[in-house]
Amino acid sequence: MDKWLYISAVLVFCTASFSILVIYRFIFGERLQVVQRMDQVVGTPSLLPIREIELNVPLYQRAIRPALGSIAKLLTRFIPTAREAALNKKVVAAGQPGNLNAREWMVLKYLLATTLGFLLWSWGGLMSKSLPQCLLLAGVGVPLGWLSPDLFLNARIRQRKNQVEKALPDALDLLTVSVEAGLGFDCALMKVAEQSNSVLADEFVLMMQECHMGKPRREALRDMADRVDVDDLSTFCGSIILADTLGISIGNILRTQSQQIRQKRRQRTEELAMKAPIKMLFPMVLFIFPAIFVILLGPAALQIMQAFNN
């Protein structure tokens, strides 16, 4: 009797649990599926407080970048449109360092010029310099702070151009092999971008993203050539546009371009090698030859001076 009572209790408990589970799934099942799908797509929400999430963001993103944007809005009316366009072209060619636009770089130039001039003025006052000397220091600091961002951007542009010129022949070889193996031009570009980690690969990825967003390939290639501003890359983009327009085989164009670019790089290397002796002449004349003259002619000059003294 006790055995059957125990079995009946277990069956009642299992039936009640199953019934509750069925009712729960019937009422909240659709909502649970939606939440599970959102977790798969968006990800599990962070359990950190909002304040802690904000503090985990770098100081540059939390304070400096918004401050530059606010000042840029105030100074927009004082920045000439032509200067802003020229600076924007330079910033894009430099790879947009710091993710700053042209207006923010202009604000940075104003801030650096003012800050450096004020610091040199204050340093002159602390060192008990006279008023004209303080003015001279401030006059040196203001243009130095104003030109510093331009010097930095020019250095970044030269660095990016050199990297593109070095990576372009190898990228064209891989692109040629990929196209001749049967891949389309777009897939071959993505394969080249995946296999290398360089400025050229980043430009290829950006160009493909523009194409995926609806921009025609011709315009995307022209924009990439304008951004990088390298002669070899501009020639390559022009050849691809011409081949696409006339229906010429892209494989033959790529092979020819690769050979020409490698020949140009060899010629540039030979030109630099021929310029090296001329560049070495100036340090030799200024630093090496005087030391050699002192070693060779020093004893003779001392003997001549002693002979005249006697």
What coarse outline follows from CA principal-axis ratios?
extended
Radius of gyration: 35 Å
Low-confidence stretches: none
| Count of DSSP H/I helices | 11
Helix % is over 70%
The largest sheet is: none
Transmembrane segments: 6-28, 107-124, 130-153, 281-302
Subcellular location: Cell membrane
Membrane topology: Multi-pass membrane protein
Organism: Desulfotomaculum nigrificans (strain DSM 14880 / VKM B-2319 / CO-1-SRB) (Desulfotomaculum carboxydivorans)
Descriptive key words:
86% helix, 2 domains, 310 residues, extended, Receptor-associated Protein
Write structural notes for this entry.
Helix 6 (131-180) crosses helix 11 (250-309). Helices cover 86% and strands 0% of the residues. The mean pLDDT is 77. It is extended and about 135 Å long. By secondary structure, it is mainly alpha-helical. The chain folds into two domains: 1-33 and 64-159, no CATH class; 163-264, Type II secretion system (T2SS), domain F (Receptor-associated Protein, Up-down Bundle), CATH 1.20.81. It starts with a helix and ends with a helix.
